[in-house]
From TrEMBL:
GO biological process annotation, one example: digestive tract development
PANTHER family membership: NIPPED-B-LIKE PROTEIN, NIPPED-B-LIKE PROTEIN DELANGIN SCC2-RELATED
InterPro entries: Scc2/Nipped-B (IPR033031)
Species annotation: Hemiprocne comata
Protein name (record): NIPBL protein
């Protein structure tokens, strides 16, 4: 069901960013009926910005650790670091653009003309939550 939101990939956007757009669009459309959604929208934007920063730092630290353990620095690793930084910057740029827009202006950034309903929004939230480190390592925590 999420594949519907991945159909129209515009230049440089990844699937996670498309889902974030769809969820923010849903929250924006429903803020008039539920004022708590304004807080939810701001919380998600801040959390995604923080996640992007943390993921980038971890990836770069992991690459530096790999380089020091091997004793040499490979050009392939530099390219990967550049790709990590580029992806992080594009996600941060997207989130900054969302922060600067008012909810009424956000409608111009909609992913497509199809609106997300409540069930789709719940599905998107569950999918995005499953991508977070805690959700991915839950089995380890449970085993311990």
């Amino acid at each position: 069901q999420l594949s519907f939101y991945f159909r129209q990939v515009s230049g440089g956007e990844d699937e996670i960013q498309q889902l974030q757009k769809a969820l923010l669009d849903y929250l924006d459309e429903n803020t008039e009926t539920d004022a708590s959604l304004v807080f939810s929208r701001k919380f998600y934007i801040a959390q995604w910005f923080r996640d992007t920063t943390m993921e980038t730092e971890k990836a770069i630290k992991s690459q530096k650790d790999d380089d020091s353990s091997e004793g040499t620095h490979h050009a392939k690793d530099v390219e990967t670091t550049g790709q990590i930084m580029h992806r992080a910057e594009s996600r941060k740029k997207f989130l900054r653009s969302i922060i600067k827009t008012t909810p009424s202006q956000f409608s111009t950034l909609k992913m497509n003309s199809d609106t997300v309903d409540y069930e789709d929004a719940c599905l998107i939230v569950r999918y995005l939550a499953s991508m977070r480190p805690f959700a991915q390592s839950f089995d380890i925590y449970l085993t311990q």
